[in-house]
Amino acid sequence: MKTRSFVAVLASAALAFAQEPQPVPVGPPVVAPAAAPQPPKTLALGMRVPAETVLVDIDGKEHRAGDCKGKITVVNFYSITCPIMRGWEQRLAAIEQQYGKQGVVFLDIDANSTEIGTTPPAKDGKDKPYEKIRAHLAAEKLPFTVLADHGNVVADFFGAQTTPHVFVFAADGKLVYRGLIDDDQHDRKGDQAKRYLRDTLDQLLAGKTVTPSETKSIGCAIKRAGKPKAEPKAPELPKNGGERD
Amino acid sequence: MALDCLPVAAASATVKRALVLLLLAGGCDRAAPAPAASPSATVEEVDLPALQRWLAARSGRPVLVNFWATWCQPCLEELPDLQAGTADFRASGGVVVGIAMERWVQGVSNAQAVARATAARDRLQLDFPVLVCTEDDAIAMRQALGIELGPLPATWLIDQDGRTVSLHDRGKIDRDGFRALAERALRAAR
CA A181, CA A173: separation in Å to the nearest integer? Predict the structure, then answer.
C-alpha cells in the first residue's frame, strides 16, 4: 500500500470525520452562515481516528487505523527513556498479554524525536533504525508493537502530552477513554488502586458504558520535533482562580 | 600554589617558572572549584506536609513553582531561563521555587534525590531555592497540592491568596516566556 504523509492523511481524513456519524454535539447550535467544514485539529472523546491514518512500526510494517475496525484498540504514547513510563511498562505489558487474548489490539506510539529521529529512515536498507527501541523491548521482554510518529503528527492530533498516555477506542472506533493506565505509579496500592485501563476494557468487553472517560495523564513530556520557539500560552489568570484542596 | 598536578621535583628553575606561567594561564588540568552556591539557593528535603508548610509560609506573595527533575532534559534546559526571566519578579517581591521530583523514579532514595538536585543546582548555578520532594507518588502530590501535574516541566502560580493556577506545562519555555509569566503573575497580585 502506498504510504502517504501523515499531514496529508490527517488533512484529507478530516473530511472523513465530517462524513462519519458524529457524537452528539456539545454547545449551542451554530446558526452562522454555512462554511466549509473545519477539519478537527485534535481528537475528542467520541470521535474516530481517520481510517486512512498510517504509521509504520519499527520493523517497517504499516499499520492503518482502518485495520482496527471492529476491534477494541488501546493506543499508548511510549518512550524507552522516560523513567515514569518505565514504572508502568511491565503492568502495561501484563494488560496487553491478558486482554490481547480477548481480541484487544495494543499499539504503542513513540513520538519522541530524541528516540526515533525527526525523519523516517531511508528505505535503502543501509540504516538499521530504531536499534535502541528494539534492544529495550528485547531486554525487558516487552510485547509492544511500537510505531514511529516522525514529526509527532499523530501525537499532536491525539493531543498526547505525556509518556505514558493511553487512548482507548471501542469496537466502533470511537474514543471512549484517555488518560492514565492506573493511579498506582509504583504498583503498591493493591486493591486500593484505580485500574483505569483495565476497568475501561472490562466495561467495553461487557458492553457497558465506560466511566470515567478521562483522567489526567502524568509522565514525561513528549519530545516533539521541529517545535517552533515556544511562547507562553497560559490562560489569563482568573479572578477567582482555582481552589486548594 | 602547589604544583602537585605536575611532576615538578626534577624540573629546572626555568622549567618551573614556565610551569607557573602555564598554571596561571589555566594550563593545569585540575578542575576549578565550583562557584559557591548563592545563599538563597538552598536545597531542602521536604515531605508533603513540609512542602505545604513551606508554600503556606509565603502566602501574601505570588509564588512561581517550577516542577522539574534531573531526569527531565527539557527541565534542565529551561532552568537557567527560569532564573534569568524571573529576576525582576523576584526583585519585586515574588518568590520562585523549584521542586525537584527525583523520587518519581522508582528506586531513588531521598539521599540520592537530594544529591542529584544539589549537583544540578551547582552545575546550573541556580540562585533560587530548590525543594526536593520526598513524595514519590505523583498522583498523591496532585491531590495534596491541588495542582494537576501532568508532564514535566510544569510551572504553576500560587497567588497571594493561596490559589493555584497552571501557567505552563507544554514543554520548556525560554527566558522571554518566563518573563511574560512572571509579569502576568505580578499583575494578578496587584
Answer: 20
Cβ distance A245 to B105 less than 8 Å, yes or no, reads no
For residue range A177-186, list pLDDT tens digits in order: 999 999 998 8
B174 touches chain A (CB under 8 A): yes
Q: How far is B110 from chain A (nearest CA, A)?
A: 16
CB contact under 8 A, B137 and A185: yes
DSSP state of B179: H
pLDDT in the model for residue B33: 55
Strands B151-152 and A219-221: parallel
pLDDT higher than threshold 90 for residue B51: yes
Q: What is the pLDDT of residue B34?
A: 57
Pull the grid cell for residue B112.
540520592
Give residues with Cβ within 8 angstroms of A168, minimum separation 6.
Answer: A72, A73, A74, A75, A175, A176, A177, A178, A197, A200, A201, A204, A210
Helix (H, G, I), strand (E, B) or coil at A167: strand
Which candidate from B146, B157, B168 shows the least CB-CB separation from A244? B146
**Based on the number of CB atoms within 10 Å of its own CB, is A63 exposed (0-12), middle (13-18) or buried (19 or more)?**
middle
Most distant CA pair in chain B: distance in Å? Answer: 71
Please name the CATH architecture into which domain A51-221 falls. 3-Layer(aba) Sandwich (3.40)
Report helix, strand or coil for A148: strand
For an interface test with A, the pick among B55, B67, B82, B137 (most A C-beta atoms closer than 10 Å) comes out as B137
Give the pLDDT score at B111.
96
Name every chain B residue with its beta carbon within 8 A of the beta carbon of A221: 72, 74, 151-153, 169-171
Report field, pTM of the whole predicted structure over 0.80: no
Q: Where are the domains of chain A?
A: 51-221
B157 has a chain A CB within 8 A of its CB: yes
pLDDT of the residue at A181 = 97
- Chain A nearest-CA residue for B105: A83
pLDDT tens profile B88-100 = 999 999 999 999 9
- B183: contact with A, CB 8 A cutoff: no
Residue of A183, A186, A218 lying closest to B149 (CB–CB) = A218
